[in-house]
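queue> pop job 88
queue> type: inverse folding (structure -> sequence)
queue> payload:
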């Protein structure tokens, strides 16, 4: 039976083992062509040049308040042809110049980029340090501390650093400002150069270079500053056009040293004799003229926007801050400074059209902080406000500690509305830091003008998601902040009786404009909230580069494809 079955299977087995015949296999039908999907970073040509403009102490309402007096080619061109973020804010406290410039370019807040104020207390040195001071470098074009500056205190990198890194250092980055911190922090760690204005000259430090480029030396050798010092600062427009401001001679403004009243016209050469020489230009609109002129020289002489890779120039206009501090936001001086800045921006845009090509560059404009109303002016209008003097509070804290814990030196330092307790005294007295912090906080809250008080432990152990506490936390340094942090009431400040300052987490200090214009930017506006830390990731998306390493902002979809 088995043999019979085997005989039946043999033909099938033989057929399975037959050699294949050499018959050609018909070709497969051709595959349909696949659609080519462009890489997100190459869907359109990148801008040849990015111009980042920061206007020091520009409140949002300076756009709307002076709108009828602006020309058509400056702020109005940026708004009419670009995108206007009308509800743009700083999300942290304190709102100072150093943290503001660092936050714009790092895309994060002081808690993460490390620039927690213009100056902050360093226990190891028993003194305040300045945000860009660096004892390891020397000035180039200037001697002494004015040139001993670098970005080393900023612990995160910037979008300008990322641009350099992404192109294997072939993109150029240059920073320009009257103030060292306004030039250095935006330019970042890997910049080609940062220039600031000292004694009538543009200078730098050997962090960036060993000698000034020949074009900078030639500019300094010219008479750009001297020509402006020979001018008289008078109103740009008829006085009737300044009806958005208080009368020229009012008690809420500070006169220049050597003058009796803060009124137009100002003879700059006479002012220079009593106010620090040629650097008096910083406190007039003509300081902004120097910045704009020097920035244009940098674009031309460094061939920015002419290569195969996107270049970046950061431009910070600081005269607005000097004028605002001295005269306040209701002054004709402030309004005149903005009307003149509007003309400088218009001229810069015309220059970029000619030098780079319209549609070939991106300009964005924002501010490093706003400004408070002058409290005395507000009080005259029956609006709350006041002036804070920490000295009585410090004295009472010392007194109460002496009474309860024994005589000692308990308050080591006070700055930026923060109390630094003397840890050595507390240790010797056997007082825990937490107990001492709560003790001091309970005394501080008793004073008029103090709205809330937080301790170092509060900021370190709690997570605040909204309100003034969250803004404090985003500006808090576990390493360098004080033991007790004060929040003053709205429109209270540590300042003189005239002029104004900034630094709070209230809207007048946090609400600033953000305008973006140029290559690939649609026209439009929004009142949806955006934040300063959103600028860097937005620019990085437009350039197709990585975000700064500590970036916590989000790209703004309104200006992205």
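queue> result:
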């Amino acid at each position: 039976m088995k043999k019979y079955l085997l005989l039946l299977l043999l033909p099938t087995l033989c057929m399975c083992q037959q050699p294949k015949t050499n018959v050609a296999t018909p070709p497969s039908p051709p595959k349909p062509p696949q659609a080519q999907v462009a890489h997100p970073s190459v869907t359109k040509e990148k801008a040849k040049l990015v111009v980042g403009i920061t206007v020091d102490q520009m409140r949002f309402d300076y756009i709307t308040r002076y709108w009828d007096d602006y020309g058509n080619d400056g702020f109005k061109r940026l708004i009419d042809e670009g995108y206007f973020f009308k509800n743009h804010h700083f999300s942290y406290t304190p709102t100072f110049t150093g943290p503001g410039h660092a936050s714009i370019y790092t895309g994060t807040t002081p808690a993460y980029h490390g620039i927690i104020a213009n100056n902050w207390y360093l226990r190891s040195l028993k003194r305040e340090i300045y945000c860009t001071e660096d004892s390891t470098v020397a000035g180039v074009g200037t001697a002494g501390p004015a040139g001993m500056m670098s970005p080393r205190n900023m612990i995160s990198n910037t979008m300008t650093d990322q641009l350099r890194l992404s192109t294997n250092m072939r993109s150029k980055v240059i920073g320009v400002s009257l103030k060292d911190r306004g030039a250095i922090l935006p330019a970042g760690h890997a910049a080609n150069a940062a220039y600031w204005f000292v004694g009538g000259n543009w200078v730098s430090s050997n962090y960036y270079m060993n000698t000034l480029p020949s074009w900078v030396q030639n500019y300094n050798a010219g008479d750009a500053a001297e020509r402006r010092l020979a001018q008289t600062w008078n109103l740009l427009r008829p006085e009737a056009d300044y009806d958005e401001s208080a009368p020229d001679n009012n008690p809420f403004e500070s006169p220049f040293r050597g003058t009796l009243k803060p009124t137009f016209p100002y003879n700059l050469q006479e002012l220079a004799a009593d106010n620090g020489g040629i650097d008096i230009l910083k406190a007039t609109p003509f300081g902004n003229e120097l910045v704009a002129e020097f920035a244009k020289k940098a674009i031309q002489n460094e061939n920015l926007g002419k290569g195969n890779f996107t270049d970046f120039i950061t431009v910070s206009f600081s005269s607005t801050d000097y004028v605002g501090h001295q005269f306040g936001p209701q002054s004709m001086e402030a309004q005149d400074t903005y009307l003149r800045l509007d003309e400088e921006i218009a001229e810069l845009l015309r220059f970029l059209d000619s030098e780079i090509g319209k549609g070939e560059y991106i300009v964005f404009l924002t501010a490093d902080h706003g400004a408070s109303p002058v409290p005395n002016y507000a009080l005259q209008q029956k609006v709350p406000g006041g002036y804070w003097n920490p000295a009585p509070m410090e004295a009472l804290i010392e007194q109460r500690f002496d009474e309860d814990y024994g005589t000692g030196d308990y308050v080591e330092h006070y700055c930026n509305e923060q109390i630094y307790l003397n840890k050595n005294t507390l240790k010797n007295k056997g007082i825990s830091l937490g107990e001492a912090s709560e003790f001091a906080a309970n005394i501080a809250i008793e004073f008029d003008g103090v709205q809330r008080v937080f301790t170092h432990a509060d900021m370190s152990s709690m997570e605040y998601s909204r309100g003034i506490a969250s803004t404090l936390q985003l500006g808090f340094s576990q390493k360098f902040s004080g033991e007790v942090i004060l929040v003053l009431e709205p429109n209270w400040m540590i300042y003189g009786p005239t002029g104004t300052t900034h630094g709070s987490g209230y809207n007048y200090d946090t609400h600033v404009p953000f305008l973006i214009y140029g290559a690939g930017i649609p026209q439009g506006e929004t009142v949806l909230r955006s934040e300063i830390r959103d600028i860097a990731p937005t620019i990085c998306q437009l350039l197709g580069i990585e975000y700064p390493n500590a970036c916590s902002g989000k790209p703004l979809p309104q200006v992205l494809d």
